[in-house]
Amino acid sequence: MLMTIGAALLFLAPLLLGVAILIPGAPEIALSRRRPFAFDPPSRLTRLANLTVGALDRFLAARNVRLYNREALETAGVRLTQAEFIVLVIAGAIVGALVGLVIGVPAVSVLLVILAPFVGHLVLGFLAGKRRAKFDQQLGDTLQLLAGGLRAGHSILRAIDAAAAESQSPTSEEMRRVITETSLGRDLLASLTDTSERMKNEDFVWIAQAIQINREVGGNLAEVLDQVNETIRERSEIKGHIKALAAEGKFSAYILIAMPIGIVLMLMAVNPGYMDAMFTHPLGWAMMAGSVVLMTIGSLWMRKIIDLKF
Questions:
Q1: Given this structure, which CATH class describes domain 136-230?
Q2: What is the CA radius of gyration of the chain?
Q3: What is the pTM of this model?
Q4: CA 210 from chain center: how many Å?
């Protein structure tokens, strides 16, 4: 009996082995799918930056310091906190100091470190101006979206929400902000007025006033917005003509401003030792400071001449 069972097991063993080899196994699952997803640990530089930003944020909050306020950052479209932007400015100052040390001119290092905070404000102003100009260019399309939404039977808030969903930045961001503020209980006119002041757009003030007058006396707001849109487009056409006429003056101003800097760089490249006295002697420092002051005054003067108001 035992011999028979043993012979049967010896006979079945090769069969079971063959079945195990021939039958396809279960598909292999990637390791990343068998374990919960985990982010890669931050690098040392990231941890250092986070610690620096946190410490600086606590320092500024304790002393109520506002070097770069939140409104300026939001207007410029910079999605950073004040502490994060200040860390970037400090990093830029360090890079400028290293550049001055590499070229062997300590005065340049000191000058770049001193100018770093002012450059930060200039960058925010440039980004804010660019964002406002883009908002002004998109205003005609925004009015068309608002008028179309009103003709479709939507309320003004629903039309603004649709314009926010279908517009591009920065119009979408500003319209979404209006919707959020009104949802929290703020008056629509106040929110629209703040938007016009933040974007420094006089045309948007007309839109806010037209909406407010319509809410008080009634009427066909879509036709009113169409008329406002036509007026704004005519003003935009006049702006384009003025910019074209003032382009020559702006280009001349850019050349006159860049010419002294270009000459100095050319002399330093052709004959590096030629400008050493300018950077090492006190009289050279005074001459550079005077040149910067005179160039600044001349730049502001020419900007005032070609900046036409209408």
A1: mainly alpha
A2: 33
A3: 0.68
A4: 31
